[in-house]
Design brief:
about 300 residues, alpha/beta, Rossmann fold, 9 strands, Smf/DprA SLOG domain-containing protein
Length: about 300
C-alpha cells in the first residue's frame, strides 16, 4: 500500500505549480524514507527546502490529490503499469540525469533492463533507401537480440519497428502522449504488435494526456538515454531527429549511420557538425558487422 500511496503522491506533486521532475527528484533524495511520508508532509518538506512554492495552499493540495487518484483509477481500468523513481522496479537504464519521476507502461518493463538496447531513429519522410535501411537495421538488431528503441513515429521509426518485429525481436516505444492516446493514431496497430511480441510502450505522461509540441523533444531524450548506441536513418536539419541526436551527445551515446544515408541526409549531418555532435559513418555491411560484434 505504501508504494501505491507514494506513486499517488508523486503524481500529485507533479500537479503543483512550479514543481517539476527535477525538484521532485531532489526532494526524494533529500528526505529520509520519502515513501513513508504523507502527501502533506512531502509538501511541507518541499517548502522547507525551497523546492515547492510557499503559496501552494491546502486547496491546491486537495485538488492535486483528487487528480492523482483519478489517474490511478485510469491506470487500473486500462491495465497500465506505473513505476516511480527510486522504486526497485525502476529500470536501471532510465537512471540518468533528467530521468522521469514516473513511468507509465504497457507490456514488459524488463525490456529496459536488457543488456543490449539500441535506438533506431530517423525522419518521418524518409527516402526509399532510408526506409529500407531502417527496416533492415531493425531486423539485424533483432536477430542479434537487441531491444530496438524508437518513438513510434511515422517514417523511419515505423520501418525500424516493423523490421524488428518481423524478425521476431522485441521493441520499446516512448510516446509523446499518455498511453490512452497513442500517437500517431495510424500507428496504434503497430503499438499493439509491440506489446503482443513481448515489447513495451512507455510514457512519462499520465494516461489521458494528449500530445503537446514540447513533449516530442522530451520523448526524444528518453530514446537516447535508454539506449547503448543510436542508429540513424534519413533525416534533415529541420527534423526532430536532431533533438534525439543532440541528446545522444549529452548522454555519451555513439551515433552510427551508413555512407548512403550520409549522402542523402547531408544537411542533417552538417547540422550535427555545427552542434559538435560526433557520428560514425560506415558502409552498410561494415555497420551491420559492427552491430553484431559491438558487445563481443
Amino acid at each position: 500500500m505504501k508504494d501505491i500511496d507514494f506513486d499517488r503522491n508523486l503524481i500529485a506533486l507533479l500537479q503543483l505549480k512550479g514543481v517539476g521532475r527535477q525538484k521532485i527528484k531532489n526532494l526524494i533524495e533529500l528526505v529520509n524514507q520519502p515513501q513513508r511520508l504523507s502527501f502533506s508532509e512531502l509538501v511541507e518538506f518541499g517548502q522547507m527546502f525551497q523546492l515547492i512554492p510557499l503559496n501552494v495552499n491546502l486547496q491546491d493540495q486537495d485538488n492535486a490529490i483528487a487528480f492523482a487518484e483519478k489517474i490511478m483509477e485510469s491506470c487500473i481500468k486500462h491495465k497500465i503499469g506505473l513505476v516511480s523513481y527510486g522504486n526497485e522496479k525502476y529500470p536501471a537504464s532510465m537512471n540518468f540525469t533528467d530521468a522521469p519521476v514516473l513511468l507509465y507502461y504497457q507490456g514488459d518493463l524488463e525490456c529496459l533492463n536488457h543488456d543490449k538496447r539500441a535506438a533506431l531513429i530517423g525522419g518521418r519522410e524518409p527516402t526509399q533507401s532510408g526506409a529500407d535501411f531502417a527496416y533492415e537495421s531493425g531486423s539485424v538488431l533483432a536477430e542479434e537480440n537487441y531491444i530496438v528503441i524508437s518513438g513510434l513515429a511515422t517514417g523511419c521509426d515505423f520501418y525500424g519497428h516493423m523490421g524488428c518485429l518481423r524478425a521476431g525481436g522485441k521493441a520499446v516505444a516512448f510516446l509523446p502522449a499518455g498511453l490512452m492516446n497513442v500517437y500517431p493514431a495510424e500507428n496504434r496497430p503497430l503499438a499493439g504488435k509491440i506489446i503482443e511480441n513481448g515489447g513495451c510502450l512507455l510514457s512519462e505522461y499520465a494516461p489521458m494526456e494528449t500530445v503537446k509540441p514540447y513533449r516530442f523533444v522530451e520523448r526524444d531524450r528518453l530514446q537516447s538515454a535508454s539506449s547503448l548506441f543510436v542508429v540513424v536513418s534519413s533525416f534533415s536539419a529541420a527534423s526532430g531527429t536532431i533533438h534525439t541526436l543532440n541528446y545522444a551527445k549529452k548522454y555519451n551515446k555513439k551515433i552510427f549511420s551508413t555512407t548512403t544515408i550520409f549522402e542523402e541526409s547531408r544537411d542533417g549531418f552538417d547540422e550535427l557538425d555545427r552542434n559538435k555532435v560526433l557520428f560514425e559513418i560506415y558502409e552498410k555491411n561494415e555497420l551491420y558487422h559492427l552491430m553484431r560484434n559491438i558487445n563481443k
